[in-house]
Prior knowledge:
Layout: E1 2-6, H1 9-18, E2 23-27, E3 33-34, E4 42-43, E5 49-50, E6 53-54, H2 56-69, E7 74-77, H3 83-98, E8 106-109, H4 117-124, H5 132-159, H6 170-186, E9 191-200, E10 206-214, E11 217-218, H7 227-238, E12 243-254, H8 262-273, H9 277-289, H10 305-319, H11 354-357, H12 361-377, E13 382-392, E14 399-409, E15 441-451, H13 460-470, H14 475-487, E16 491-494, E17 497-500, H15 502-514, H16 521-535, H17 541-559, H18 564-579, E18 600-605, E19 608-613, E20 625-627, E21 643-648, E22 651-658, E23 661-666, E24 676-679, H19 691-698, E25 702-706, E26 713-719, E27 722-727, E28 730-733, H20 738-742, H21 745-756, E29 773-777, E30 784-790, E31 793-797, E32 802-804, H22 816-828, H23 839-858, H24 867-882
Parallel strand pairs: 1-2, 1-7, 7-8
Antiparallel strand pairs: 3-6, 4-5, 9-10, 9-15, 10-11, 10-14, 12-13, 13-14, 16-17, 18-19, 19-20, 21-22, 22-23, 23-24, 25-26, 26-27, 27-28, 29-30, 30-31, 31-32
Helix pairs in contact: 3-5, 5-16, 5-17, 8-12, 8-13, 9-12, 15-18
Amino acid sequence: xxxxxxxxxxxxxxxxxxxxxxxxxxxxxxxxxxxxxxxxxxxxxxxxxxxxxxxxxxxxxxxxxxxxxxxxxxxxxxxxxxxxxxxxxxxxxxxxxxxxxxxxxxxxxxxxxxxxxxxxxxxxxxxxxxxxxxxxxxxxxxxxxxxxxxxxxxxxxxxxxxxxxxxxxxxxxxxxxxxxxxxxxxxxxxxxxxxxxxxxxxxxxxxxxxxxxxxxxxxxxxxxxxxxxxxxxxxxxxxxxxxxxxxxxxxxxxxxxxxxxxxxxxxxxxxxxxxxxxxxxxxxxxxxxxxxxxxxxxxxxxxxxxxxxxxxxxxxxxxxxxxxxxxxxxxxxxxxxxxxxxxxxxxxxxxxxxxxxxxxxxxxxxxxxxxxxxxxxxxxxxxxxxxxxxxxxxxxxxxxxxxxxxxxxxxxxxxxxxxxxxxxxxxxxxxxxxxxxxxxxxxxxxxxxxxxxxxxxxxxxxxxxxxxxxxxxxxxxxxxxxxxxxxxxxxxxxxxxxxxxxxxxxxxxxxxxxxxxxxxxxxxxxxxxxxxxxxxxxxxxxxxxxxxxxxxxxxxxxxxxxxxxxxxxxxxxxxxxxxxxxxxxxxxxxxxxxxxxxxxxxxxxxxxxxxxxxxxxxxxxxxxxxxxxxxxxxxxxxxxxxxxxxxxxxxxxxxxxxxxxxxxxxxxxxxxxxxxxxxxxxxxxxxxxxxxxxxxxxxxxxxxxxxxxxxxxxxxxxxxxxxxxxxxxxxxxxxxxxxxxxxxxxxxxxxxxxxxxxxxxxxxxxxxxxxxxxxxxxxxxxxxxxxxxxxxxxxxxxxxxxxxxxxxxxxxxxxxxxxxxxxxxxxxxxxxxxxxxxxxxxxxxxxxxxxxxxxxxxxxxxxxxxxxxxxxxxxxxxxxxxx
Length: 883
């Protein structure tokens, strides 16, 4: 009997199909041990000894493996073929050794790059020992991340209240985003003009051309700075008389891109499918576990020779011999660490076309992308002719140029074209056949004004590319890094671009000024190279840790005496241009708008940074404050006295914190002792709500109008559970906060009639919300899987388990396979409905307990009588310790 351990139940299920009855495949469900999230789990003073902890769920899984081993001779560790997979196998081995479950058992490690029958059987026939060099690299990386996190984060909490945490790679990734934002803010647009003409040949072909020389001077992109010169050039072009002065055709070849690595897959899925890195990797994981693709965490671009032969056969049969190059294409990786440079991501069987597999949702989209890229990588190059034609008028002082390209043979472009980030792919433009000396007519000409644009904010694709270019982190870690930045609210997403939140900018400003070395790109990249040396067996991991800790610990000591006033002075100077941008009227942006005497500066409260007046201790004191940071918990950064939003119809409107969250307050002309208040709508950052919206909210409830047949007033309002309309005792939920201010009579009456017609009831008698999306029946519960709007935002349910829709995902974009994956993860984490205890048992307990409770009340005396209770409490503790 053989016990095989893999990471996931899906992988276990697939492998079970390929192995006989002599094998029992069990899942560890990922890592079974981790460092406890407390200080002291890594001990530098004890040569970096680590305290590992097995959680309750993992204890049960270790027990299941140990129980299975009682009747087995062999333990086969078949976790993923990378550093993390090697570490999981090592943890399983260590945990089983502690339970003394391996006595007399043979332990072997096997790896396979694809979960197919031939790959699994070949791996079982060639077992090996655990690669301790890869484990050492894991230990070093884990210790580094732990020590940086638990070293820097407490410093941030003490010196920069409201900050969440800092991480070794996370902070550097955040710095890249912040640096780009600063670059954008410093950018000053430059005006320039272009002059474009529509030319027509003697045969009637019309094609575009651009001004390339004026007044005898060759023009570059920014050489026409104003309208005067542009219009003069336009008028000169309109005079016509142009002839072809030069024709240049350059034949060239365009080779296909290599097959996907983890990084390029994340980039291309972001560009073409709109997937973030986490969504890409989750989907790829499911494709791998189902045996459709090879392992998806890789830096390598090479492919198995057998796979290349299969690809060439598939290309010949599907596209023809002319699309199959004479020799196979072989790609090499630039990655230094060969041990982790596995085969590229490819379909396990190229004959399995996207249509033939009948996949759904995200899996279908990602598999098609991987299949096309892999097949294209072995196809013939595209043959292209790039053509440029120059036109000159009689004086020779004005020239136009037309460019285009002709695809002579499409080659791999027939199947696949790589996406471009931050630039548009120009359509292939064909030019008519033109000969030197041939006359052309100016059909039209126009001059257009342009302004140079700042560099774009990073998308997931371009940020992953930047991290890879700098050598920061490793592709398998990128998804977790980017997700962590979002979780910490250090960044927000707008049109799939990263925008640093003020909270994130302050953290980076602090680290750059007081901990600069540890957010430098070169330092972080150099550390990654050393970790690669550890996994290659060229560097001892503890030697690496000693060198790092000596300098890092010294830097922590240097900063321990730093005063918060020093921090504030530095941040005020560094972040001044961002926090206090210049005013249009030229006045001092730091002058307090309330008292006119004090100076505004950055201040730190218990929950974060805000801007306050220096005259807060004056006579009279100035209480002016305004928010600095937005985000999910921005209301926590609101000072106890509140934040002035502006002046409303009845006086100043102040943003405050209350028992049930942030709210706006303004004087009530009808009752001076009872100010008017309105809650900030759920899902809105309090400091993102402008004055106009605050006034609207304070004007609620809003009378929509009298119901035409019921003769009752319909009122729109926002309550504790969201926006609604009300007529008498009838409530109907509204889908969004804006509807409260916009809903008109026709729609309000229709919603009420729907409710009265039996549209279902929810809490407090309101209409149950209609599903955002129906996703079919759950294979687990047999009930419908739906995306719904809940009190705390959109969520997915299968009738038994609820899972939140990810923050960066639109609820209507959720597909069935992704929903099932999220529900499974939630159920695994204990998110399902809890079963009720049997009523009979409850009743029995109560009947027995009642007399004891009464006796306890009667015997209640001074404190000394509690001693027997303490002694009694020790007995169950003793029993549980034995157990």
